[in-house]
Amino acid sequence: MKRFWFTGLMFCLLVLVSTNLALAANANPEGQIVIVGTDIETLNPMLSESTYETVVLNGIFSQLVRMDEAGNLVPDLALEVPTVDNGGISADGKVFTFHLRKDAKWHDGKPVTAKDVAFTWEMIMQAPQVVSRDGFSDIERMETPDDYTVVMYLKEQRAAWLLNWAAISGAILPAHAWKGVEPKEFTKAHKLSRQPIGSGPFKLVEWKPGSHVILEANKEYYGEGPYLAKFIYRAVSDSNTQLTMLKTGEADIAMNLVGDQYPQVQAIKRLQVSLDPGSAYTHMTFNLDNSLFQDKRVRQALNYALPRQLIVEKVLKGIGMVATTSTAPILWAYDDSLEPYPFDPEKAKDLLTEAGWVDTDGDGIREKGGKRLAFSLSTSAGAKDRAQIAQIAKQFWKEIGVDLEIKLVEATMLFGDVLENRKFDMIMFGWLTPADPDEFTLYHSSQIPTPENEMLGQNYAGYVNPKVDQLLEKGKSLLNQEERLPVYRDIQKIIYDELPMLYCYYFVDIHAAPKALENWRPAPFTNGINWNVNQWRLAK
Protein backbone atom coordinates (compact mmCIF):
# COMPACT_ATOMS: atom_id res chain seq x y z
CA MET A 1 0.00 0.00 0.00
CA LYS A 2 1.07 3.57 -0.51
CA ARG A 3 -0.03 7.05 0.34
CA PHE A 4 -0.70 9.46 -2.49
CA TRP A 5 0.33 13.05 -2.70
CA PHE A 6 -1.26 15.92 -4.56
CA THR A 7 0.96 18.98 -4.85
CA GLY A 8 2.68 17.98 -1.63
CA LEU A 9 -0.52 17.05 0.21
CA MET A 10 -1.22 13.51 1.32
CA PHE A 11 -4.25 11.84 -0.22
CA CYS A 12 -5.93 10.45 2.87
CA LEU A 13 -7.23 7.25 1.32
CA LEU A 14 -5.09 4.14 1.44
CA VAL A 15 -5.12 2.36 -1.89
CA LEU A 16 -3.82 -1.06 -2.72
CA VAL A 17 -1.85 -0.56 -5.92
CA SER A 18 -2.63 -3.53 -8.08
CA THR A 19 -3.35 -4.35 -11.67
CA ASN A 20 -6.25 -6.37 -13.03
CA LEU A 21 -4.69 -9.38 -14.67
CA ALA A 22 -6.80 -11.22 -17.20
CA LEU A 23 -8.12 -14.40 -15.59
CA ALA A 24 -10.09 -17.05 -17.36
CA ALA A 25 -13.60 -17.46 -16.01
CA ASN A 26 -14.08 -20.68 -14.10
CA ALA A 27 -15.55 -23.23 -16.48
CA ASN A 28 -16.92 -25.56 -13.81
CA PRO A 29 -18.60 -23.66 -10.96
CA GLU A 30 -19.96 -25.96 -8.27
CA GLY A 31 -22.27 -25.82 -5.28
CA GLN A 32 -24.34 -22.99 -3.88
CA ILE A 33 -24.51 -20.64 -0.92
CA VAL A 34 -27.79 -19.47 0.62
CA ILE A 35 -27.87 -16.15 2.49
CA VAL A 36 -30.91 -15.09 4.50
CA GLY A 37 -31.74 -11.47 5.27
CA THR A 38 -34.45 -8.85 5.18
CA ASP A 39 -36.58 -8.53 2.04
CA ILE A 40 -35.30 -6.22 -0.69
CA GLU A 41 -37.00 -3.54 -2.77
CA THR A 42 -34.85 -3.00 -5.86
CA LEU A 43 -32.03 -4.45 -7.92
CA ASN A 44 -31.00 -1.06 -9.26
CA PRO A 45 -27.76 -0.06 -7.50
CA MET A 46 -28.32 3.67 -7.95
CA LEU A 47 -31.66 3.46 -6.16
CA SER A 48 -30.58 1.13 -3.36
CA GLU A 49 -30.22 2.15 0.29
CA SER A 50 -30.15 -1.31 1.84
CA THR A 51 -27.16 -3.42 2.89
CA TYR A 52 -29.32 -6.45 2.10
CA GLU A 53 -29.68 -5.27 -1.48
CA THR A 54 -25.92 -4.68 -1.63
CA VAL A 55 -25.35 -8.39 -0.98
CA VAL A 56 -27.38 -9.30 -4.07
CA LEU A 57 -26.07 -6.44 -6.20
CA ASN A 58 -22.45 -7.43 -5.46
CA GLY A 59 -23.13 -10.60 -7.41
CA ILE A 60 -24.80 -8.98 -10.41
CA PHE A 61 -22.83 -5.79 -11.05
CA SER A 62 -19.27 -4.62 -11.57
CA GLN A 63 -17.62 -1.36 -10.57
CA LEU A 64 -14.61 0.59 -11.75
CA VAL A 65 -12.90 -0.20 -8.45
CA ARG A 66 -13.90 -2.10 -5.34
CA MET A 67 -12.98 -1.89 -1.68
CA ASP A 68 -11.59 -4.94 0.08
CA GLU A 69 -12.10 -5.98 3.71
CA ALA A 70 -9.24 -3.75 4.88
CA GLY A 71 -10.59 -0.61 3.20
CA ASN A 72 -8.12 -0.73 0.30
CA LEU A 73 -9.22 0.06 -3.23
CA VAL A 74 -8.63 -2.71 -5.76
CA PRO A 75 -9.32 -2.68 -9.52
CA ASP A 76 -12.45 -4.21 -11.00
CA LEU A 77 -13.45 -2.99 -14.47
CA ALA A 78 -10.49 -0.62 -14.33
CA LEU A 79 -7.13 -2.20 -15.12
CA GLU A 80 -5.53 -0.19 -12.31
CA VAL A 81 -6.59 2.05 -9.46
CA PRO A 82 -5.59 5.53 -10.69
CA THR A 83 -2.63 7.05 -8.85
CA VAL A 84 -0.22 9.89 -9.45
CA ASP A 85 2.59 7.37 -9.89
CA ASN A 86 0.86 5.38 -12.64
CA GLY A 87 -0.36 8.50 -14.44
CA GLY A 88 -3.99 7.95 -13.54
CA ILE A 89 -4.22 11.13 -11.43
CA SER A 90 -2.95 14.49 -12.60
CA ALA A 91 -0.42 16.46 -10.57
CA ASP A 92 -3.13 18.87 -9.43
CA GLY A 93 -5.37 16.01 -8.29
CA LYS A 94 -8.29 17.09 -10.49
CA VAL A 95 -8.10 14.72 -13.46
CA PHE A 96 -8.63 10.96 -13.08
CA THR A 97 -8.01 8.58 -15.98
CA PHE A 98 -9.37 5.04 -15.97
CA HIS A 99 -8.25 2.41 -18.47
CA LEU A 100 -10.83 -0.33 -18.74
CA ARG A 101 -10.24 -4.00 -19.31
CA LYS A 102 -11.29 -5.19 -22.77
CA ASP A 103 -12.63 -8.61 -21.84
CA ALA A 104 -15.62 -7.55 -19.72
CA LYS A 105 -19.06 -8.34 -21.14
CA TRP A 106 -22.60 -7.64 -20.10
CA HIS A 107 -24.74 -10.63 -19.27
CA ASP A 108 -26.37 -10.28 -22.72
CA GLY A 109 -22.98 -10.63 -24.42
CA LYS A 110 -22.37 -6.99 -25.34
CA PRO A 111 -18.95 -5.51 -24.39
CA VAL A 112 -18.57 -3.17 -21.42
CA THR A 113 -17.13 0.11 -22.69
CA ALA A 114 -16.36 3.65 -21.62
CA LYS A 115 -19.77 4.68 -22.90
CA ASP A 116 -21.34 2.66 -20.09
CA VAL A 117 -19.31 4.54 -17.48
CA ALA A 118 -20.31 7.89 -18.98
CA PHE A 119 -23.94 6.81 -19.14
CA THR A 120 -23.87 5.74 -15.49
CA TRP A 121 -22.59 9.13 -14.37
CA GLU A 122 -25.08 10.99 -16.57
CA MET A 123 -27.98 9.00 -15.16
CA ILE A 124 -26.82 9.57 -11.57
CA MET A 125 -26.79 13.30 -12.27
CA GLN A 126 -30.13 13.40 -14.10
CA ALA A 127 -32.44 10.75 -12.66
CA PRO A 128 -34.63 12.31 -9.94
CA GLN A 129 -34.93 9.15 -7.84
CA VAL A 130 -31.24 8.41 -7.25
CA VAL A 131 -30.42 8.30 -3.55
CA SER A 132 -27.53 10.75 -3.63
CA ARG A 133 -25.25 12.57 -6.06
CA ASP A 134 -22.68 13.29 -3.40
CA GLY A 135 -19.22 12.82 -4.89
CA PHE A 136 -20.51 12.33 -8.41
CA SER A 137 -21.54 15.98 -8.54
CA ASP A 138 -17.87 16.84 -8.00
CA ILE A 139 -17.24 15.80 -11.62
CA GLU A 140 -17.24 18.80 -13.94
CA ARG A 141 -17.12 16.75 -17.13
CA MET A 142 -16.29 13.28 -18.39
CA GLU A 143 -14.58 12.32 -21.63
CA THR A 144 -14.30 8.95 -23.41
CA PRO A 145 -11.47 9.34 -25.95
CA ASP A 146 -11.84 5.68 -26.93
CA ASP A 147 -13.95 2.67 -25.99
CA TYR A 148 -11.71 1.73 -23.07
CA THR A 149 -10.58 5.03 -21.62
CA VAL A 150 -12.54 7.31 -19.29
CA VAL A 151 -11.24 10.71 -18.18
CA MET A 152 -13.00 12.49 -15.31
CA TYR A 153 -12.38 16.17 -14.60
CA LEU A 154 -13.17 17.29 -11.06
CA LYS A 155 -14.28 20.80 -10.21
CA GLU A 156 -11.72 20.82 -7.42
CA GLN A 157 -9.58 18.41 -5.43
CA ARG A 158 -11.62 16.09 -3.23
CA ALA A 159 -10.43 13.83 -0.43
CA ALA A 160 -11.22 10.13 -0.78
CA TRP A 161 -13.15 10.89 -3.95
CA LEU A 162 -12.56 7.46 -5.49
CA LEU A 163 -14.65 5.87 -2.74
CA ASN A 164 -17.77 6.98 -4.61
CA TRP A 165 -16.98 4.58 -7.43
CA ALA A 166 -16.25 1.79 -4.94
CA ALA A 167 -19.71 2.05 -3.38
CA ILE A 168 -22.47 -0.09 -4.89
CA SER A 169 -24.26 3.13 -5.93
CA GLY A 170 -21.36 3.59 -8.37
CA ALA A 171 -21.90 0.22 -10.07
CA ILE A 172 -21.71 0.53 -13.85
CA LEU A 173 -24.95 0.16 -15.83
CA PRO A 174 -25.40 -0.93 -19.48
CA ALA A 175 -26.04 2.09 -21.70
CA HIS A 176 -27.41 -0.04 -24.53
CA ALA A 177 -30.04 -1.70 -22.31
CA TRP A 178 -31.24 1.62 -20.90
CA LYS A 179 -31.19 3.37 -24.28
CA GLY A 180 -34.21 5.58 -24.81
CA VAL A 181 -35.20 5.56 -21.13
CA GLU A 182 -35.76 9.08 -19.82
CA PRO A 183 -34.22 9.96 -16.43
CA LYS A 184 -37.70 10.37 -14.92
CA GLU A 185 -38.44 6.76 -15.92
CA PHE A 186 -35.38 5.53 -14.04
CA THR A 187 -37.32 4.13 -11.09
CA LYS A 188 -37.57 1.05 -8.89
CA ALA A 189 -40.62 0.01 -10.90
CA HIS A 190 -38.76 -0.09 -14.23
CA LYS A 191 -38.24 -3.54 -15.72
CA LEU A 192 -34.44 -3.18 -15.64
CA SER A 193 -34.58 -2.33 -11.93
CA ARG A 194 -36.24 -5.69 -11.39
CA GLN A 195 -34.58 -7.76 -14.12
CA PRO A 196 -31.15 -6.15 -14.33
CA ILE A 197 -28.40 -6.81 -16.84
CA GLY A 198 -25.04 -6.66 -15.14
CA SER A 199 -21.47 -7.64 -15.87
CA GLY A 200 -20.69 -9.24 -12.52
CA PRO A 201 -19.84 -12.83 -11.61
CA PHE A 202 -23.48 -13.95 -11.38
CA LYS A 203 -26.55 -13.55 -13.58
CA LEU A 204 -30.10 -13.08 -12.34
CA VAL A 205 -32.25 -16.16 -12.77
CA GLU A 206 -35.28 -15.17 -10.71
CA TRP A 207 -36.37 -12.55 -8.22
CA LYS A 208 -39.59 -13.29 -6.40
CA PRO A 209 -40.21 -10.34 -4.02
CA GLY A 210 -40.89 -11.44 -0.47
CA SER A 211 -39.34 -14.83 -1.13
CA HIS A 212 -35.96 -15.14 -2.86
CA VAL A 213 -33.41 -14.07 -5.45
CA ILE A 214 -31.58 -16.77 -7.43
CA LEU A 215 -28.32 -15.97 -9.21
CA GLU A 216 -26.33 -18.37 -11.37
CA ALA A 217 -22.65 -18.33 -12.33
CA ASN A 218 -21.66 -16.08 -15.21
CA LYS A 219 -19.31 -18.40 -17.11
CA GLU A 220 -18.10 -15.51 -19.26
CA TYR A 221 -17.06 -13.39 -16.27
CA TYR A 222 -13.85 -11.49 -16.95
CA GLY A 223 -12.29 -11.92 -13.52
CA GLU A 224 -11.44 -14.69 -11.12
CA GLY A 225 -14.19 -17.24 -10.65
CA PRO A 226 -17.02 -17.52 -10.02
CA TYR A 227 -16.50 -20.85 -8.30
CA LEU A 228 -20.08 -21.24 -7.04
CA ALA A 229 -22.76 -22.47 -9.44
CA LYS A 230 -25.50 -20.59 -7.60
CA PHE A 231 -25.86 -17.79 -5.12
CA ILE A 232 -29.28 -17.57 -3.46
CA TYR A 233 -30.70 -14.84 -1.25
CA ARG A 234 -33.81 -15.67 0.76
CA ALA A 235 -36.02 -12.97 2.26
CA VAL A 236 -36.43 -13.93 5.92
CA SER A 237 -36.46 -10.99 8.32
CA ASP A 238 -37.06 -12.79 11.61
CA SER A 239 -33.76 -13.52 13.33
CA ASN A 240 -35.13 -16.58 15.13
CA THR A 241 -36.20 -18.11 11.83
CA GLN A 242 -32.79 -17.29 10.39
CA LEU A 243 -31.10 -19.10 13.28
CA THR A 244 -33.30 -22.13 12.78
CA MET A 245 -32.39 -22.18 9.09
CA LEU A 246 -28.70 -22.12 9.99
CA LYS A 247 -29.21 -25.06 12.32
CA THR A 248 -31.13 -27.12 9.76
CA GLY A 249 -28.78 -26.26 6.90
CA GLU A 250 -31.45 -24.42 4.92
CA ALA A 251 -29.21 -21.34 5.12
CA ASP A 252 -25.45 -20.92 5.11
CA ILE A 253 -25.15 -17.26 6.16
CA ALA A 254 -27.59 -15.12 8.16
CA MET A 255 -27.55 -11.32 8.20
CA ASN A 256 -29.79 -10.52 11.17
CA LEU A 257 -28.16 -12.47 13.99
CA VAL A 258 -28.32 -10.79 17.41
CA GLY A 259 -26.27 -11.11 20.57
CA ASP A 260 -28.35 -13.63 22.47
CA GLN A 261 -28.06 -16.03 19.52
CA TYR A 262 -24.27 -16.07 19.53
CA PRO A 263 -23.84 -19.17 21.78
CA GLN A 264 -26.27 -21.12 19.60
CA VAL A 265 -24.47 -20.08 16.43
CA GLN A 266 -21.14 -21.10 17.95
CA ALA A 267 -22.58 -24.52 18.66
CA ILE A 268 -23.30 -25.21 14.97
CA LYS A 269 -20.27 -27.33 14.16
CA ARG A 270 -20.33 -26.79 10.40
CA LEU A 271 -19.90 -23.00 10.77
CA GLN A 272 -16.87 -20.76 11.18
CA VAL A 273 -17.89 -18.00 13.59
CA SER A 274 -16.23 -14.71 14.55
CA LEU A 275 -17.01 -11.45 16.32
CA ASP A 276 -15.75 -8.43 14.37
CA PRO A 277 -16.08 -4.71 15.20
CA GLY A 278 -18.08 -3.09 12.45
CA SER A 279 -18.68 0.38 11.05
CA ALA A 280 -22.45 0.13 11.44
CA TYR A 281 -24.61 1.53 14.21
CA THR A 282 -28.25 1.43 15.23
CA HIS A 283 -29.89 4.80 15.73
CA MET A 284 -33.22 6.55 16.13
CA THR A 285 -33.60 9.49 13.75
CA PHE A 286 -35.82 12.40 14.70
CA ASN A 287 -38.02 14.06 12.11
CA LEU A 288 -37.01 17.60 12.99
CA ASP A 289 -39.97 19.01 11.07
CA ASN A 290 -42.01 17.80 14.03
CA SER A 291 -42.33 20.66 16.51
CA LEU A 292 -41.93 18.22 19.44
CA PHE A 293 -38.26 17.71 18.58
CA GLN A 294 -37.13 21.17 17.56
CA ASP A 295 -35.85 22.03 21.04
CA LYS A 296 -32.60 20.12 21.49
CA ARG A 297 -33.34 19.81 25.22
CA VAL A 298 -36.14 17.37 24.34
CA ARG A 299 -33.76 15.31 22.21
CA GLN A 300 -31.13 15.36 24.95
CA ALA A 301 -33.71 14.36 27.54
CA LEU A 302 -34.71 11.33 25.49
CA ASN A 303 -31.05 10.42 25.17
CA TYR A 304 -30.43 10.67 28.91
CA ALA A 305 -33.51 8.50 29.53
CA LEU A 306 -32.48 5.74 27.12
CA PRO A 307 -30.54 3.02 29.01
CA ARG A 308 -28.15 2.15 26.21
CA GLN A 309 -25.77 0.11 28.32
CA LEU A 310 -28.76 -1.95 29.45
CA ILE A 311 -29.70 -2.38 25.78
CA VAL A 312 -26.21 -3.65 24.96
CA GLU A 313 -26.26 -6.05 27.89
CA LYS A 314 -29.86 -7.23 27.73
CA VAL A 315 -30.66 -7.18 24.02
CA LEU A 316 -27.21 -7.70 22.51
CA LYS A 317 -25.85 -9.86 25.35
CA GLY A 318 -22.80 -7.65 25.50
CA ILE A 319 -22.00 -7.96 21.80
CA GLY A 320 -21.96 -4.27 20.92
CA MET A 321 -20.73 -0.89 22.15
CA VAL A 322 -22.71 2.11 23.38
CA ALA A 323 -22.50 4.76 20.66
CA THR A 324 -21.67 8.45 20.92
CA THR A 325 -22.14 9.67 17.34
CA SER A 326 -22.35 8.21 13.84
CA THR A 327 -18.56 7.89 13.53
CA ALA A 328 -17.61 4.35 14.49
CA PRO A 329 -14.52 3.54 16.59
CA ILE A 330 -12.85 1.69 13.71
CA LEU A 331 -12.69 4.92 11.67
CA TRP A 332 -9.55 7.07 11.87
CA ALA A 333 -11.54 10.21 12.73
CA TYR A 334 -13.37 8.71 15.74
CA ASP A 335 -13.26 11.09 18.71
CA ASP A 336 -12.64 8.99 21.80
CA SER A 337 -12.82 12.08 24.03
CA LEU A 338 -16.62 12.01 23.75
CA GLU A 339 -18.15 9.92 26.50
CA PRO A 340 -21.53 8.26 25.92
CA TYR A 341 -24.44 10.12 27.50
CA PRO A 342 -25.00 8.50 30.91
CA PHE A 343 -28.35 7.04 31.80
CA ASP A 344 -29.78 9.83 33.96
CA PRO A 345 -33.60 10.01 34.06
CA GLU A 346 -33.55 12.83 36.63
CA LYS A 347 -31.46 14.94 34.27
CA ALA A 348 -33.95 14.06 31.53
CA LYS A 349 -36.88 15.23 33.65
CA ASP A 350 -35.11 18.49 34.47
CA LEU A 351 -34.44 19.20 30.79
CA LEU A 352 -38.06 18.57 29.83
CA THR A 353 -39.32 20.81 32.63
CA GLU A 354 -36.83 23.49 31.59
CA ALA A 355 -38.15 23.21 28.03
CA GLY A 356 -41.70 23.82 29.27
CA TRP A 357 -43.02 20.27 29.21
CA VAL A 358 -45.03 19.62 32.39
CA ASP A 359 -47.68 17.06 33.35
CA THR A 360 -50.50 19.44 34.25
CA ASP A 361 -53.40 16.97 34.29
CA GLY A 362 -51.75 14.17 36.28
CA ASP A 363 -52.07 11.47 33.60
CA GLY A 364 -48.32 10.84 33.61
CA ILE A 365 -47.69 12.44 30.22
CA ARG A 366 -46.20 15.91 29.88
CA GLU A 367 -47.90 18.68 27.91
CA LYS A 368 -46.96 22.05 26.50
CA GLY A 369 -49.26 24.53 24.82
CA GLY A 370 -52.08 22.00 24.78
CA LYS A 371 -49.98 19.36 23.04
CA ARG A 372 -49.00 16.06 24.68
CA LEU A 373 -45.43 14.77 24.50
CA ALA A 374 -46.56 11.79 22.45
CA PHE A 375 -45.10 10.44 19.21
CA SER A 376 -44.34 7.22 17.36
CA LEU A 377 -41.19 5.22 16.66
CA SER A 378 -41.16 3.24 13.41
CA THR A 379 -38.87 0.26 12.91
CA SER A 380 -38.74 -2.93 10.86
CA ALA A 381 -41.06 -5.81 11.63
CA GLY A 382 -39.19 -9.05 12.24
CA ALA A 383 -36.04 -7.39 13.57
CA LYS A 384 -36.09 -8.93 17.04
CA ASP A 385 -33.44 -6.66 18.53
CA ARG A 386 -35.07 -3.42 17.38
CA ALA A 387 -38.47 -4.49 18.65
CA GLN A 388 -36.90 -5.11 22.06
CA ILE A 389 -35.10 -1.75 22.00
CA ALA A 390 -38.35 -0.01 21.11
CA GLN A 391 -40.07 -1.65 24.08
CA ILE A 392 -37.26 -0.57 26.40
CA ALA A 393 -37.49 3.00 25.10
CA LYS A 394 -41.26 2.99 25.60
CA GLN A 395 -40.89 1.77 29.19
CA PHE A 396 -38.18 4.18 30.28
CA TRP A 397 -39.50 7.20 28.41
CA LYS A 398 -42.89 6.75 30.03
CA GLU A 399 -41.15 7.22 33.38
CA ILE A 400 -40.10 10.75 32.34
CA GLY A 401 -43.55 11.63 30.99
CA VAL A 402 -43.36 10.56 27.34
CA ASP A 403 -46.00 8.53 25.50
CA LEU A 404 -44.35 6.40 22.79
CA GLU A 405 -46.24 4.43 20.16
CA ILE A 406 -44.28 1.63 18.46
CA LYS A 407 -44.91 1.02 14.76
CA LEU A 408 -43.51 -2.22 13.31
CA VAL A 409 -43.36 -1.83 9.54
CA GLU A 410 -42.37 -4.32 6.84
CA ALA A 411 -38.82 -3.58 5.70
CA THR A 412 -39.68 -2.74 2.09
CA MET A 413 -42.23 -0.19 3.27
CA LEU A 414 -39.98 1.16 6.04
CA PHE A 415 -37.01 1.79 3.75
CA GLY A 416 -39.24 2.81 0.89
CA ASP A 417 -42.17 5.11 1.48
CA VAL A 418 -41.70 5.74 5.22
CA LEU A 419 -38.00 6.64 5.19
CA GLU A 420 -37.61 8.12 1.72
CA ASN A 421 -40.63 10.38 2.12
CA ARG A 422 -39.92 11.12 5.80
CA LYS A 423 -43.27 9.79 6.96
CA PHE A 424 -42.22 9.22 10.56
CA ASP A 425 -41.90 10.92 13.94
CA MET A 426 -38.85 8.84 14.85
CA ILE A 427 -37.44 5.93 12.90
CA MET A 428 -34.97 3.26 14.04
CA PHE A 429 -32.70 1.28 11.73
CA GLY A 430 -29.07 0.40 11.20
CA TRP A 431 -26.66 2.49 9.16
CA LEU A 432 -23.42 1.28 7.63
CA THR A 433 -20.78 4.01 7.48
CA PRO A 434 -18.16 4.25 4.71
CA ALA A 435 -14.43 3.91 5.26
CA ASP A 436 -14.04 7.68 5.08
CA PRO A 437 -15.62 9.86 7.81
CA ASP A 438 -17.26 12.26 5.34
CA GLU A 439 -21.00 12.22 6.12
CA PHE A 440 -22.05 15.05 3.84
CA THR A 441 -25.12 13.22 2.60
CA LEU A 442 -26.26 12.50 6.17
CA TYR A 443 -25.95 15.94 7.78
CA HIS A 444 -25.59 18.67 5.14
CA SER A 445 -28.73 20.78 4.80
CA SER A 446 -28.67 20.42 1.01
CA GLN A 447 -29.23 16.67 1.47
CA ILE A 448 -32.66 16.91 3.12
CA PRO A 449 -35.08 15.02 0.84
CA THR A 450 -37.79 17.45 -0.25
CA PRO A 451 -40.19 17.69 -3.21
CA GLU A 452 -38.15 20.68 -4.36
CA ASN A 453 -34.95 18.60 -4.71
CA GLU A 454 -36.91 15.54 -5.89
CA MET A 455 -36.38 13.78 -2.53
CA LEU A 456 -32.62 13.61 -3.09
CA GLY A 457 -30.25 13.01 -0.18
CA GLN A 458 -30.15 11.05 3.07
CA ASN A 459 -30.50 13.79 5.68
CA TYR A 460 -33.76 12.19 6.78
CA ALA A 461 -33.73 14.05 10.08
CA GLY A 462 -34.05 17.38 8.28
CA TYR A 463 -31.05 18.64 10.24
CA VAL A 464 -29.89 22.18 9.51
CA ASN A 465 -26.77 23.74 10.99
CA PRO A 466 -24.77 26.26 8.91
CA LYS A 467 -21.63 25.55 10.93
CA VAL A 468 -21.88 21.83 10.22
CA ASP A 469 -22.51 22.59 6.54
CA GLN A 470 -19.35 24.66 6.46
CA LEU A 471 -17.28 21.99 8.20
CA LEU A 472 -18.57 19.23 5.93
CA GLU A 473 -17.63 21.26 2.88
CA LYS A 474 -14.20 21.98 4.34
CA GLY A 475 -13.60 18.33 5.19
CA LYS A 476 -14.28 17.27 1.60
CA SER A 477 -11.87 19.86 0.21
CA LEU A 478 -8.84 19.03 2.38
CA LEU A 479 -6.56 16.21 1.27
CA ASN A 480 -4.24 15.83 4.22
CA GLN A 481 -5.60 13.48 6.88
CA GLU A 482 -3.98 15.47 9.67
CA GLU A 483 -5.79 18.58 8.48
CA ARG A 484 -9.09 16.77 8.07
CA LEU A 485 -9.00 15.18 11.53
CA PRO A 486 -9.90 18.31 13.59
CA VAL A 487 -12.68 19.14 11.11
CA TYR A 488 -14.40 15.81 11.64
CA ARG A 489 -13.78 15.93 15.38
CA ASP A 490 -15.53 19.33 15.46
CA ILE A 491 -18.48 17.88 13.53
CA GLN A 492 -18.76 15.02 16.00
CA LYS A 493 -18.79 17.41 18.96
CA ILE A 494 -21.64 19.44 17.44
CA ILE A 495 -23.62 16.33 16.53
CA TYR A 496 -23.02 14.92 20.03
CA ASP A 497 -24.59 18.06 21.50
CA GLU A 498 -27.43 18.64 19.05
CA LEU A 499 -28.47 15.00 18.50
CA PRO A 500 -30.37 14.91 15.21
CA MET A 501 -30.42 11.20 16.03
CA LEU A 502 -30.12 9.09 19.14
CA TYR A 503 -27.12 6.83 18.63
CA CYS A 504 -27.87 3.52 20.34
CA TYR A 505 -24.91 1.23 19.76
CA TYR A 506 -22.09 0.32 17.41
CA PHE A 507 -22.26 -3.14 15.93
CA VAL A 508 -19.94 -5.96 16.76
CA ASP A 509 -20.83 -8.22 13.86
CA ILE A 510 -21.55 -11.91 14.31
CA HIS A 511 -20.06 -13.42 11.18
CA ALA A 512 -20.87 -17.04 10.51
CA ALA A 513 -20.38 -19.05 7.34
CA PRO A 514 -19.73 -22.70 6.49
CA LYS A 515 -16.24 -23.90 7.35
CA ALA A 516 -16.14 -25.29 3.83
CA LEU A 517 -16.51 -21.80 2.34
CA GLU A 518 -13.11 -20.56 1.21
CA ASN A 519 -12.22 -16.87 0.74
CA TRP A 520 -14.85 -15.76 3.26
CA ARG A 521 -13.55 -12.28 4.12
CA PRO A 522 -16.49 -10.09 5.23
CA ALA A 523 -15.87 -6.35 5.13
CA PRO A 524 -16.99 -3.89 7.81
CA PHE A 525 -17.74 -1.07 5.39
CA THR A 526 -20.41 -0.31 2.80
CA ASN A 527 -19.06 -2.91 0.37
CA GLY A 528 -20.71 -5.68 2.38
CA ILE A 529 -19.98 -9.19 3.57
CA ASN A 530 -19.65 -10.61 0.05
CA TRP A 531 -17.62 -7.94 -1.73
CA ASN A 532 -15.49 -10.82 -3.14
CA VAL A 533 -18.29 -13.28 -3.87
CA ASN A 534 -16.61 -14.16 -7.17
CA GLN A 535 -13.80 -15.75 -5.12
CA TRP A 536 -16.06 -17.81 -2.85
CA ARG A 537 -15.71 -21.54 -3.29
CA LEU A 538 -16.71 -24.63 -1.38
CA ALA A 539 -13.88 -26.95 -0.41
CA LYS A 540 -14.30 -30.46 -1.70
Entry summary:
The protein is an alpha+beta fold. The chain is built from 14 helices and 22 strands. The protein has a 6-stranded mixed beta sheet.
Strand and helix map with partners:
Layout: E1 2-6, E2 9-15, E3 32-37, H1 51-60, E4 65-67, E5 73-75, E6 95-99, H2 114-126, E7 139-146, E8 149-154, H3 163-166, H4 191-194, E9 202-208, E10 212-217, E11 230-235, H5 239-248, E12 253-254, H6 262-266, E13 271-286, H7 296-304, H8 308-314, E14 320-322, H9 345-354, E15 367-368, E16 371-372, E17 374-380, H10 384-398, E18 403-409, H11 411-420, E19 426-432, H12 440-443, H13 466-477, H14 481-498, E20 501-514, E21 517-518, E22 537-538
Parallel strand pairs: 3-11, 3-12, 17-18, 17-19
Antiparallel strand pairs: 1-2, 4-5, 6-8, 7-8, 9-10, 10-11, 13-19, 13-20, 14-20, 15-16, 21-22
Helix pairs in contact: 7-9, 13-14
Description:
Helices cover 24% and strands 23% of the residues. The longest helix has 18 residues. The relative contact order is 0.17. The protein is α+β, with helices and mostly antiparallel strands and 540 residues long. The strands form 7 sheets. The protein has a 6-stranded mixed sheet. Strand 17, helix 10 and strand 18 form a beta-alpha-beta unit. It is globular, with a radius of gyration of 23 Å.
